[in-house]
Amino acid sequence: MAKEILESDVYKEMDSIQNHSLVYPDYYLNPFHAYDEGNLTWLAAAEAEAATMSMARRAVPNASSVDEANQILHGNWLHAIDQHHIQYSETSMIGDILDIGCSVGVSTRYLADKFPTAKVTGLDLSPYFLAVAQQKEKRGTPRKFPIRWIHANGEETGLPSKSFDLVSIAFVLHECPARAIVNLVKEAFRLLRPGGTLALTDSSPKSKILQELSPVLFTLMKSTEPFLDEYYLTDVEETLREVGFVNITSILTDPRHITITATVPQ
C-alpha cells in the first residue's frame, strides 16, 4: 500500500493543502511511531492506513479478516456516536462534522459514509497525511458534499465558534501531552453548537488486554509513543466535565479501545 502511494502523483496535492504560516507545537516535532521526523514525512503518510488496518486486526483478534476487523472497530465507534447524539441532542440532525487529527482520512471517510448528508471537514497538523487523504478521496466515488481538508492545529483551529454538530478526535489523545489534551477538548467545546456531540476514541486504560501486556511489550509500545504515560495519567472524563461538557458516556467499543461521548449544554 505504501509503495503504491509513494510511486503515485500524491506530491502534487501538497500545494493546495499546506498552510505555510502554521507553527507546529513543540511536542509534534518529536519522533513518533519510530519515524525520526514523526508525522512530517511522506513515508509516515504512505504507511499510515496500513498501520491503522494492522491496529484494527490486533484490536479485534477474532475477526476473520482485516476488513471485518476494520468494520467492527469503526462500526462500534460510529454506533456509539449515533446513539449518543440521538439520546442527548434535541435535534438528531448532524449537519456539520469536524474530524480533528484526521491523519490520512480513514476516520473522516467513515464519518462521511455514516452521515452522507453532513458536510465533513478533516483537520490535521501533517500536510503529508492530508495530501494522501485528499488524493484517496479524489480517487473514490464522488460525494454530494466533498470532504474538506484543512492543515491546522486542533488546539487552535481558527474555525468559527459554534459551527459544528459533531467533533471527532479519533486515536489522537495518546499522542499528546496532557496540556494539549486539555486544549483540544477546550477547542472542541468552542467549536460545537449547543447540543453538539464530542466523540473521543482511543486506547482504554481499563482494557484487560493492555493491562496484561508484558512489561517488555509495554516498554516497546511506549518507545514509539512519547506521551503515552501522560495520556494514561489523564482523567479524560474529568477534563471534559471541567471544560463544561455534560452527558459524559464511556463505552469499550472493542477489547482495546474506549469511546467517550459528551454533549455541549443546550
General description of the model:
It is a single chain. With 266 residues, this protein is α/β, with parallel strands linked by helices. It is 42% helix and 18% strand. It has 11 helices and 7 strands. The chain has helices at residues 2-6, 14-17, 42-59, 66-88, 106-114, 127-139, 178-191, 208-211, 215-223, 228-232, 236-243; strands spanning 96-100, 119-124, 148-151, 164-170, 192-203, 246-252, 257-263. The chain has a 7-stranded mixed sheet, sandwiched between helices. Helix 3 (42-59) crosses helix 4, helix 3 (42-59) packs across helix 6 (127-139) and helix 7 crosses helix 11 (236-243). It is globular, with a radius of gyration of 17 Å.
Can you give keywords for this protein?
about 270 residues; alpha/beta; seven-stranded mixed beta sheet; 7 strands; about 40% helix
